[in-house]
Design a protein that fits this description.
The complex is a heterotrimer. By secondary structure, chain B is mostly helical. Helix content of chain B is 83%, strand content 0%. Classes of the chains: A alpha+beta, B mainly alpha, C alpha+beta.
Chain lengths: 250, 198, 669
């Protein structure tokens, strides 16, 4: 199939960017979206031009590295799918495809379509853990039975891949879905209980400090999340947060 | 946002309750509005209500500014389908509703407060005989419905009340509530307008 | 250079305990005088970084990804083994040890493998305490599944995302230490060389991938945890960025590289679809718990399927050849990976392949039997007395979805086939490398102070790795082994003080790195990096792949030689080196693969036997099974670098002594 690509090109964080147009013939519908971009890059290199920079790594939909805002949607038109798992059969011959980086003040563009998501790491460092040392002297793993429903819910929240699509999709560039997934995972497990309130407070504080917007419950994040993390997690975070604000000293 | 919103939601219910009386009888309405003007609980609640409004508005504007800043560069192409229209336009519906409220205060509350009218029902009936006024009124309540259709369940979500079992019920209640408000107030306007024609 | 395994004396069960009791310690108050560099933040590197930081060392961790959470350990699907015997099927540390030794075709070190089995149970305890949401049963206890090559259920899992959950647990532990300032994290940094001062590893040269800056980092010890080198084949299940660079650089600085020819070809991957394909996707081994592998009995049927005239579901039961069940009745579809992969290749080479691609390479993985079986069970449980076929099918599919939902969804997304209705098409693909940097019992390479952990070392899996053992090894090394053994080395360094980055050794190495980058950027050739990488991949897959022979290996060695010199003449790297340049990153990695590939072929040529993942066509039994030569090849082949021409590398042998298991022909029949 033939495609017209309109791709955001930007030299570095401080330069101004703009859209460039590229024609691509002979794209196989069986290629993945990123293989299509590989094809474009191979051509650019053969023409002695600089290839388009984009983030990608595992190409199995699990590492969370790939991003791309494709035709107005993070990770493109498929639901519950990352860009690397999006396949060209989803598009039609002759389509024009707009490709932009994630847009958020807290995700500055590094180059072209690549953004800096280290804000997520800092949110994690603020509280995204259970404070247990790796001594190997913890109790036996089966000492605390965990209700299967809770364990499954914790898993569903833990499935977040930290890609940032929630921020990209949210009209407020809020990262609440990301924060709530981690807070929920630990809040649902007995191991995470002791520090669950403080965790919610610390992670939300860091979230706000990073300059992400506020959650106004539009649900865009849930709809665009490649791992279909539920909005219920944000409510659980709110519950933890309100509880923490009312009961802790700090 | 959610607390002030929930507070305003409860106020609207009272307001509709009073207004609806005018459909049945002039005296009933006048009695109800008189009660509202003189009862000390209602009178003191008025100030809390005003604070509620101000908090809701100021906070809404601050959050909107913060949220706009969080995006930075805007997208060139945007497909809005992933979130409902009502949720994406809260600030717009909110500001238009605010303008309407100001108009509303000028039309009704100020003259009533200053004691410029003897008969509240007559004042209202006169206003509703004007088709332009009725149209503005109806548009405002459609906007209010839009605002509430997101606001109602959003308020619960923000305060942490979400559960796979109960959230659908809350959403259902929210729908019923915003339809009641929009249709209720609109119906009053329409009835009053046609009454003025006869 | 020291080339002694340093395996402790004494009975097998007591080696690790005695060793731990006898090695030296660094007192808590001295630990913050010591810096440790860790390269790579997967399960091994991440767990080591977190643990060393918790203990009080100053850790500097490096990864090429934008966050430690993205290391490729995250893609491991099936599970992690541990000798917990929760299912009461008579499992034990010894059995896990024995299965691993046997699975590795008796080419691993007994003492290391026993230690791995010993600490495995601790890993599960630790991860649960960290909040890793493992799969549980309705009683709230941990669930297990079976993996290839064993007859017990000892694999713990979190749906098909076990690697992700374990890595995120590890990343959480790291995040906590990053927040405390005990780990200094360098994201988007790539190590480009090792700095040795007075014979000891004392630092690295790294490139900041965003700014292009070349940075010097010093430490008292350097830990390499950079994963495996499967990407030498271009197409593999590895991440696009997975590379051998860190491991290869230390090899060139004196670390021996062991058993490079041991590569694991995973039997269940989605077959190749076309020439623009960039990578292969694994379908978890756990699927072999429920799926049956087959090809048509009649070659005509296979042809009809390839040509699209028939579908897999059209072939009646009696015309299907469940070749694993036929050849290996005792283990059936759950034979080890190397055996399953070779059997698939044998069928496809004989003309029974069902995939419509250039090489007809593909076999069916069929769930219909399991869907029927589980559907019937579910119907019984729900009290449906005479279930219809349709009801059974629906219930069975529901069971499959609960167990493997995400894998099925991924398969459908990639192939556009619905695996609930038609059998999956699968074929082996490069997945894991058992070979790696040689290390002693303390996980130290032949360079003092340079430790290697996880997939990057060679230590625990012999010639073939059993499923769900990679996660186990990574975490065992990082959480429970290295943190003890590294102290023994660092005990000498409590008075050393900070290592200066202004030493002449740093100057020299930095200059080398810069020269090489300049060369790549200014080469002015005409062909892209991928062009060379794909050609290398083809040589490797065809001649150093699933089946090898002397003739092809010799050809491969000389072809890679030519390809490498062509690369340096004609490669084109666009852009500059003073900013983000993904082509430059790739070029450096491919340049290293072009050296490693040759060493792999040499190692394969040297090993005149078939063992585990290394199958030499000349050495097989009458039934076509792999034939070891224990008399001559019971050793670890450790290669020493000798200058630019890889063909000059020198072979050292570490004899493997088996005192606790008897060497037998591996049989899964």
């Amino acid at each position: 199939m033939k495609l017209t690509l309109k791709i955001w090109r930007q030299k570095d964080e401080h330069s101004k960017g703009k859209f460039e147009s590229y024609q691509l013939d002979e794209v196989s519908p069986n290629s993945s979206f990123l293989e299509m971009l590989d094809q474009l890059n191979e051509r650019l290199i053969n023409d002695k031009k600089e290839p388009v920079v984009f983030d990608h790594d595992c190409r199995e939909g699990i590492c969370g590295t790939c991003s791309l805002y494709i035709n107005g949607q993070p990770h493109g038109p498929d639901r519950g799918v990352t860009t690397c798992q999006l396949h060209m059969r989803r598009f039609k011959d002759g389509d024009t495809i707009h490709i932009e980086p994630w847009r958020a003040k807290s995700f500055p563009v590094i180059k072209d379509l690549m953004v800096d998501r280290s804000a997520f790491d800092r949110i994690m460092s603020a509280g995204g853990f259970i404070s247990v040392n790796t001594s190997g002297n913890t109790q036996d793993a089966n000492n605390i039975p965990i209700n299967k429903e809770d364990a499954d819910k914790a898993f569903d929240a833990a499935a977040c891949i930290g890609c940032g699509a929630c921020v990209a999709a949210c009209k407020n560039a809020s990262a609440m879905l990301f924060v709530s997934a981690k807070v929920s995972q630990f809040a649902l497990l007995p191991q995470g209980q002791p520090e669950s309130k403080q965790r919610a407070l610390n992670m939300v504080r860091q979230h706000d400090k990073e300059g992400f917007g506020n959650c106004s419950n539009t649900g865009a994040c849930e709809a665009e999340c490649p791992k279909e993390i539920s909005l219920e997690n944000i409510a659980r975070l709110n519950r933890e947060y309100i509880g923490a604000s009312l009961t802790t000293d700090a | 946002m959610s607390l002030s919103g929930l507070f305003l939601i409860s106020f609207l219910l009272v307001h509709l309750g009073v207004n609806i009386t005018m459909i049945w009888s002039k005296d009933l309405f006048n009695a109800a509005s008189h009660f509202m003007e003189t009862n000390w609980i209602i009178q003191s609640m008025q100030w809390i209500l005003a604070i509620g409004f101000i908090v809701h508005i100021v906070y809404g504007i601050i959050l909107t500014i913060q949220n706009r800043r969080a995006r930075g560069v805007q997208y060139a192409v945007k497909k809005g389908g992933s979130a409902p229209l009502s949720s994406r336009t809260m600030i717009h519906s909110g500001i238009l509703i605010l303008l309407f409220i100001l108009l509303h205060l000028r039309d009704f509350l100020v003259p009533m407060k200053l004691g410029l009218v003897d008969d509240n029902y007559e004042l209202v009936a006169a206003k509703f005989s004007n088709p332009v006024f009725v149209i503005i009124y109806i548009v405002a309540f459609i906007l209010l419905g839009l605002h509430l259709s997101h606001g109602f369940q959003s308020a619960f979500q923000s305060s942490g009340a979400a559960h796979s079992k109960y959230t659908p019920i809350i959403k259902g209640l929210g729908k019923a509530y915003f339809l009641l408000m929009s249709l209720g107030f609109t119906a009053i306007a329409v009835v009053m307008y046609f009454r003025s024609l006869t | 250079m020291t080339f002694q395994s340093k395996t402790p004396e004494g009975p097998l069960e007591q080696k690790w305990r005695n060793h731990k009791s006898n090695i030296r310690l660094v007192a808590p108050n001295n630990r913050d005088r010591i810096d440790v560099i860790i390269v790579g933040t997967g399960l091994a590197g991440g767990s080591a970084a977190a643990t060393l930081a918790e203990q009080g060392y100053n850790v500097k961790a490096f990864c090429y990804q934008d966050s430690p959470r993205r290391a490729h350990s995250i893609a491991a699907q099936g599970g992690i083994n541990a000798a917990k015997n929760y299912q009461g099927d008579n499992d034990s540390v010894y059995r896990l040890f024995y299965d691993t030794i046997k699975g590795g075709d008796y080419r691993s070190r007994e003492s290391n493998v026993y230690r791995l089995a010993e600490v495995s149970a601790n890993i599960i305890d630790q991860c649960v305490a960290q909040g890793v949401p493992f799969g549980r049963d309705y009683g709230g206890l941990l669930d297990n599944r079976s993996f290839g090559g064993v007859q017990v259920s000892r694999t713990f899992y979190a749906k098909g995302q076990t690697g992700q959950q374990l890595l995120l647990g590890c990343y959480s532990a790291m995040s906590r230490q990053i927040g405390k300032g005990k780990i200094k994290m360098y994201n988007r940094h790539e190590m480009l060389d090792l700095v040795i001062v007075d014979g000891k590893a004392r630092g690295i040269i790294a490139r900041n991938l965003i700014t292009g800056e070349i940075e010097r980092h010093s430490a008292h010890a350097v830990v390499i945890a950079s994963g495996g080198y499967g990407n030498v084949y271009f197409l593999s299940t590895n991440a696009m960025g997975s590379n051998v660079t860190a491991a290869w650089k230390i090899h060139k600085r004196g670390a021996y590289f062991a058993n490079p020819c041991y590569v694991q070809i995973h039997p269940t991957c989605i077959p190749v679809h076309g020439t623009n394909q960039s990578k292969l996707t694994l379908m978890s081994e756990s699927l072999r718990n429920s799926g049956r592998i087959w090809v048509p009995k009649n070659i005509e049927d296979a042809k009809a399927i390839r040509e699209g005239r028939k579908k897999g579901s059209d072939i009646p039961e009696e015309d299907r050849d469940y070749y694993l069940e036929r050849r290996y009745p005792a283990f059936g579809n759950l034979v080890p990976r190397d055996v399953a992969s070779r059997a698939a290749k044998e069928r496809c080479d004989s003309g029974y392949g069902i995939e419509n691609n250039e090489t007809n390479e593909g076999v069916f993985l069929d769930f219909s039997t399991e869907i029927r079986k589980k559907g019937r069970e579910a119907a019984f449980e729900q009290g449906i007395s005479n279930p219809t076929a349709d009801q059974i099918r629906k219930l069975g599919e529901k069971w499959i979805e609960a167990k493997y939902g995400n894998l099925f969804q991924m398969y459908q997304q990639i192939t556009d086939d619905n695996p609930y209705k038609v059998p999956m098409k699968i074929y082996p693909a490069v997945h894991y490398t058992m070979g790696g940097v040689w290390v002693d019992y303390n996980l130290m390479s032949t360079i003092p102070g340079c430790f290697v952990i996880g997939e990057a070392n060679f230590s625990d899996h012999g010639a073939n790795r059993l499923g769900a053992s990679a996660l186990m090894q990574g975490l065992a090394d990082g959480y429970f082994v290295l943190p003890y053994t590294i102290a023994d080395y660092l005990a000498d360094d409590i008075r050393t003080g900070k290592i200066s980055t202004q030493l002449p050794e740093f100057d020299e190495v930095e200059n080398n790195v810069k020269t090489r980058l300049n060369k790549l950027i200014n080469n002015g050739g005409n062909k892209s990096v991928d062009h060379f990488h794909k050609r290398l991949g083809l040589i490797m897959w065809n001649k150093v792949g699933m089946a090898r022979n002397e003739h092809d290996l010799k050809e491969a060695i000389s072809e890679i030689d030519e390809l490498r010199s062509e690369f340096w003449k004609d490669v084109f790297v666009p852009g500059s080196d003073d900013g983000m340049n993904q082509e430059l990153e790739k070029a450096g990695r491919v340049a290293d693969f072009l050296e490693l590939g040759q060493l792999m072929a040499m190692d394969a040529l040297n090993r005149n036997e078939s063992c585990g993942g290394h199958f030499r066509e000349e050495y097989r039994s009458d039934e076509g099974e792999a034939k070891r030569d224990d008399e001559h090849y019971t050793f670890v082949a450790a290669w020493e670098y000798h200058g630019e021409d890889i063909k000059n590398e020198m072979l050292h042998k570490e004899e493997l002594k088996f005192e606790n298991v008897e060497l037998k022909t591996r049989s899964y029949k």
